[in-house]
Amino acid sequence: MSTPQFDRKLSYSDYLLWDNEERIEIIDGIPYNMSPTPSTKHQQVSMNLSFQLMNFFKERNCQVFTAPFDVRLFSKGKKNDEVFNVVQPDISVICDTNKLDDQGCIGSPDFIIEILSPSTVKMDKIVKRNLYEKANVKEYWIVDILNKLIEVYYLDSKNQYGKPLFFTIEDDIKSYFFGGLEINLKEIF
């Protein structure tokens, strides 16, 4: 998934100038090709989750965004050439409107959902999980369409993700941080 090696870390400034037709994300200054266009099932699950989240968050001063939507982690108070982490989560929830600008999100969303594709499993389950933990994303869901499973991580009192919680199609998933957010997974898959 990684693009060719560069002799320096790439920044958000480089990202903005990227002229390839391929979409990329930058993690710790390293560019990664994003997977091909999502499958129909991926899009259906994304839309189903987005619909549920939009209904829940519309009265709570939080905004829900779907990819493509740039999230510039560790970027508060930095210039574009000082930002080395730019991702496009499948779904992002931002509750602090000061983090929003015309380019996307400055800093960490409160809640991120990534939907696995065959080519993104390692990226979403290891690389992004560690990145989101480091960036203090409060809650992170990894959606496994194939197995109809959602893996949930949330920050503990030490600002670390502990062992994940798992929810299957037979469950109602409940958010750890957003009280009242409960979704019947039969409506998602």
From TrEMBL:
It holds the Pfam family Uma2. Residues 14-184 form the Putative restriction endonuclease domain. This is Putative restriction endonuclease domain-containing protein. It comes from the Bacteria.
